Each structure stands twice: as structure tokens, then as C-alpha cells.
Amino acid sequence: MQIKNEVTGWQLFYLVVQTQVGIGVLSMQKDISIVSRNDAWISLAIGGILIQLLLLVFLWLLLRAGEVDYFILLEKAFGQIIGKLLAACYLAYFIYILLVSNLSFIKVISEWIYMDTPRWILMLLFLIPAVYCASGKVVHIARFSMLVSIILPVLVMLLIPVYSTPNYTHFFPIGSEGAGQILKGLEATLLAYIGFESFLYFSKYVRSNREKELKKAAFSTLFVTVFYLFLLISTQVYFHIEELVIVPYAVLYILKSLSFVIVDRIDLIFLSLWIVIVLTSFVNFLFIASNESKNLFNLKSHKRPIIFIVFAVFVTSLFIKEKQEIIGVQTALPAVAIIFTVILPLGTLCFYLLFRKEKEI
Amino acid sequence: MKRAIFLLHVVLIFFLAACWDQNLLKDTQLVYTAGYDQTEEGDIQATTLAPPVEEGGVENEVTVTGHSMLDTMYEMDLRIAEYANFSKLQTVLIGESLAADSVYPFLDELYRNPDSNLHARLALVALPAVDLLSSEIETQKNKSEYFKGILESSELTSVIPYMSLQEACTIIFSPERDLYLPYITYDEKTKRAKIAGLALFHQKKFTEEYLNTEESVIFNILNNDIEEVARITRRVHEDRNPEVENWITIEVKDAKSNLKVNRQLSKLRAEVTLEIVVLEYGQNKITNKKEEELTNILSDLLAEDIRRVLKKLQSSKSDALGLGSQVASFNAERWDEATWSETYQQLDQEVDVDIKLISTGIIE
């Protein structure tokens, strides 16, 4: 059976959602709360709205550009040499993201449940399925992303018992940290939302009825924002801010402290669902990275680069094991992310449109 | 290719067993009850109870001393045949010596360890925890069950609130609220432990004051934290004979309490609405007129009780009702963490109790 190498608008929607929702589910509450304290939810909401607007701008520019593939667009905008160079930078950026996501995943798993299992085993167990998933066609990972999205409502349901004894005083006084801290919190917020830019790369697979279908997918960040806000507010009504900043994975603590009649330790159930969510995020990035290197090096298939990339991530991760080193790897992420997800795409798209206009005249 | 994938799956199965982190029941000793004291040198003395391996066997009791919480576990492992495992911990008893300065540093390890049980109940013990755990409890074979049960049954009657490790740590981390813990004493004569009420803390330190069981029911009503059963027995008449006819026992079906500190931070207003059912009343007949008389008497009595409880909280500087967090949230410009305990002590009280008698049960 011939499977078409294209996706529908809804599939793209879930692809982008699943690329965004990953490690952040567990780590963003603390990261944002450290900076914007009890106004963390405001930072998150503002961040979500800004990124949603940015996506709409991307959509508008993409539709005007006419060219479907973002990386070809890079070349057309800046010429072949600079274009290829930028594409190579992008590749490095993707590998960096994969590395950070692998390291963070291993950190959570080895701190919370598998204290004694060697890290390389955990990594292999994470990376081998990822290779398998990413080696398929885009339709496969799109369908997988859709399927996995069923987990998100489950996570929401698991957290609902928090509202049996909510403590809303933790939010007050609203805005006490001042605009400065709230805006500073946007940096941590951006980390939670990374993955929204996959809209640019995956959009080339939407072939029929582009304008209508892309519009559907462009609102994916809105969905993620609502989901994240729920997570953050649930942790804020539960924990006092002083506690939230010392608790590394707030959601896990909450779930661990909830008790139902037959089930205890729901955090472990949550964790096994969360692993799948992190995996989709990793797989989607891996897929983008390998497809990009296929174009970059003029290869026939994207399967070989997958092996190379994953091998590189695996070996590098083996050498980064001290806590400070892991943190060191992570700290560069916000700055790098802004360049590759906001400045470069916007610049490229605008440059391309202006450049083309001049040519036409 | 297909064969390669098949083989890969076969190989992968061997990775799934998670052998490194297996935690076999036969290798572990599940600690159900743990008691902690501080020695004079500042070390931690831990006493743990693990249920017997065979039914009807003897409970496994170990007392060790260590420099830190994990050190006590290490010392324990040296003395028992298995590994000590705290994942099924039910009760943590804290000796007063541990709470003399700050109780949190000792709880930190129990709180953060992913293995530990956050539902474990916490209680403060009037005598060293080691003495309580090693003393004989009449008619009880399984002490772990006893200590868990004694707390659980008192929670059902709203004498003490459910205070788990998680709840206690949430309160400890709020600078605007003070901790309170169930308080357990031991009666030498009857050889039984007893819930004595609620121990009051100022920040993380035990104030040496506690609310007795009568007062702690009132406290739970004020804190909007009552369970299905909350019984109050009061003397409503002076002149009846026999004595039992002077008394009434009511059950609080629904209680709403609204505590407010005014904007000038000078007055504390408590509005309490109770829906009650009369369970036992010596005179056995309640007419409409009698009903009114009784609610009036009870309102006055309970208002007096509430004043007494609030006074006790204020004089011991224990802001267990979390009034500080209310001020910090809704009156932020006047909130000052440093002077709050002074301000709190100076608050004037205004108590308003509204009682609705909704049923007289089996009494006509």
C-alpha cells in the first residue's frame, strides 16, 4: 500500500502540540515560579499569547512566501552558501535540543524511580524506540502524535483532585512581583513552549488546501497554553510558593501525595504516561533533524542520519553526568532558542518576501 | 529487515526487567511507625517499628542514633537482617526535643525522598518518642496499627485534623501560617496512649502550649476542617437533678466559619454558623420554646469557647488558623512578616455564633 507523504491540518496540529509538550510538563512550574513567584501563571499566559501571535505571523508570512519548505526558503532568501550554512546551524541546534531533552529525561527518571539503573541503559531504552518511530514517514509520526494526545486529558483528570482543597490565597496579591519579574519569567516560559516552531518545518507536508488546513494547525499553541495554565494553576493552588521553588517536580509531588481508595503512588502511573509524551517530542525533533540533514547532504533517505544523530546524542550524553554540567548544557538554551525560533525565522521570511518583491519589480 | 526487527525486540525484552532497581519484599523491612528524638548532642535518635514477618509474631523494634536522618537508616541497616524501607510509613511520631528549635530539617529527608510515603501521619509526643514506642500498650499486640488507629479514629470525630507529612510541610513552608500537630500523651496507669489535643507551633518551633481535645474540636470548626462526626457536650443548665440532665450533646452537621482581620489590623472577627443535631439531652423533650432557649445558651457557650481558643492561640503566638496568609494576600500593603506575630497578639476579638438546630434526632 502506498502511503501518501502528506498530513492534514489536524494532524499537523497534533504534531506541533506533541513537539511542544515534553519535559516542560514537569519542570516548567519550578522554572517559572523561581522568577515570577506567585505571578507565574501571568508569565505563562503572556508567553503563550505572544507565541500564539508569533505563530500567526509565521502563518501569514508562509502563505505569502509561496515556497513550502522552510530550509529551501533559507537558501532562496540568503543565497546557497549562507543558506546551507544556516541550515547546518539549524541542524546543530536540533541536535542540541535533542541532547538537552535526552539529558533532562534521564535526570528525571534516574532521580525519581530508577536510582540504581545505569544511565546508558535508560538512554538506550529511550533512544531505540525513538529511532524506530522517527524512521517512518511523516504520516506515521503524525498519527502517533494524534494517538498519544489522548494522554493529555488523562493527565488533566489525574490532577483534578487537587481542587478538593484548593488554596487560592497563594495567587494573591496578584501582580505583586511587578511587571519586571513577570516579563523576566517569559524566558523560562519560552523553554516550556519550545517546539512551536516545528510548525514551520512540518507545514511543508500539508499539500492540499493549504491555507485552510494550516490555519487549523496554527492554533496549536493556544491549546498548549490552556493545558500548561491548568498544570501551573493546579500546582499553585496546592503548594505555597516557598515550597514550589524547592520541589523539583511539582506535579509528581502532588500526585504522590494524593491517595485514592485502590491506587496509591499515581505519580508512577503519571510518569509512565509522561515518558511517552517526552518520547513524541523527541521523535518529532529527530524526524525534523534527520529530514533536514537528508536535504543538506543530498541523501536518499532520512534513516541513516537518524542513526548518526542519535549516536552523537547518546555518546555526548554519556560524558555529561555531573549535575553542574547538565545545568551548564541547559543554561544556553533560552538564548539559542530565541535566535532559532524567533529571530531567524522572522528574519528569513521577511527578507525573502522583500527580496522577491525587488526581483519582480 | 523484518527478521532484524524481530530479533531486536527479543533482545530488548531483556532490558525491560529493570533488575537494578528491583526492590524485593523479602529483602526489605517495611517500617510502619517511626519515632524521632534529639539527643543532647544534637544527634537524631530513631525508633522504628516494623510489623512481624509471620502473623502473631513479635514486632520488630529498633532504636538507633545517627547524625542525620539517612545516617539513622544506615545504622538501622547494620542491625537488621533486611534493608529498612520507609515507603509504607504510616505514622511519624516526633519527640518534643526534636521540635524545640525547628522541626523541618528532620522532616526534609522524609518529605523529599521519592520513596517515602507522603500520607504518613505526623504527631507530636509529650514524652520522648522512644519511650512511647517501647512502652507497653495494654491489649495491643500490633503497636503500629494502634498508633495509626488512634490518630485515625480521632480524625473521624474531628478532634484532630488529618495531618500528613505533605500537609505539614505545606504549612511549614508558608511563612504566613504556623504549624499544628496532633499531640499524644501516655498514661502510665492504664498503659495506653491518648490523644491530648493539638500542639501549637510558632513558625517551626513548639510553643509548649496545646489545645485540649475540647478546644481542638472548636479549632477544627474555626479552621473549616471537620469530618462527618463532630460532637460537643456542654453543661447548659445549673439546677437539674440528676446531674446528667444538665448536659447536652450535640453533633455539628455543617459548620461554616469566616475569620476576618480588619484592614487596620486591629480586630479579628469570627463569624461561625453551625447546623446542629441534638443527640442526647437529659430532659428528653424539646419544645419550640425550649429549642430557642437551648440555641441561645449554646451560642453563648460556644462563643465563649471560641474566644478562649483564639486567646490561647494569640498568647502562644501561634497563627495556626493562617490569618497571616489572609492579610498577606488581601491586605498586602500592611503585611509585615517581621511584626506580624506582635500584631497578631494584639488583635481584639469579635465573635459571632449563629446556631441552627436542624433536628432533634430521636428526641421528641
UniProtKB/TrEMBL annotation, chain A:
Pfam families: Spore_permease. GO terms for biological process: spore germination. The chain crosses the membrane at residues 12-29, 41-63, 84-105, 117-134, 146-165, 218-239, 245-263, 270-290, 302-320, 332-355. It is a multi-pass membrane protein. InterPro entries: Spore_GerAB. One of its GO terms (cellular component) is membrane. Belongs to the amino acid-polyamine-organocation (APC) superfamily. Spore germination protein (SGP) (TC 2.A.3.9) family. It is found in: Membrane. The keyword Transport applies. Keywords: Germination, Membrane, Transmembrane, Transmembrane helix, Transport. It comes from Jeotgalibacillus alimentarius. NCBIfam families: 2A0309. This is Spore germination protein (Amino acid permease). Coiled coil: none annotated. Its main location: membrane.
